[in-house]
Amino acid sequence: MKKENEAKNLVQFRLTGTPDGNLLVSFYHLDVFNEQAVNWHIAGLLVENKLGARVLYEGNLSNNMAYQPAISNLLERVEVYVNCVRIEKVN
């Protein structure tokens, strides 16, 4: 994958007590402005075996339907520009 498509501004939070258990929510910025480029980033993660069954969602913030109120509340605490989110189950 091209270097300009690597994640930047990574900010992570833990959510506990959700219906899916404990979650790790990672916000990040990709220097891309279209869904196709985000999909290429996610495809690269799949190829590198960095996505699995524990990942509930990864992609553009605008497309996320999982835990919308919680994600919105967390976004208020993010001080850097982000346009993507990854939600995954953790122990």
Please characterize this protein's 3D structure:
The structure is a single chain. The protein is of the alpha+beta class and 91 residues long. The chain is built from two helices and four strands, in the order E-E-H-E-H-E. A four-stranded antiparallel beta sheet has the order 1-2-4-3. The radius of gyration is 13 Å and the shape is globular. It starts with 7 loop residues before the first strand and ends with a strand. The mean pLDDT is 82.
Unreliable residue stretches: none
- Based on secondary structure, the structural category is alpha+beta
Number of strands: 4
Globally, the shape reads globular
Query: How do the helices and strands follow one another from N- to C-terminus?
Result: EEHEHE
Describe the protein's topology.
Elements: E1 8-18, E2 21-29, H1 35-47, E3 55-60, H2 68-75, E4 84-90
Antiparallel strand pairs: 1-2, 2-4, 3-4
Question: What would you say about this model in short?
Answer:
This protein is of the alpha+beta class and 91 residues long.
List keywords for this structure.
91 residues; alpha+beta; four-stranded antiparallel sheet; globular
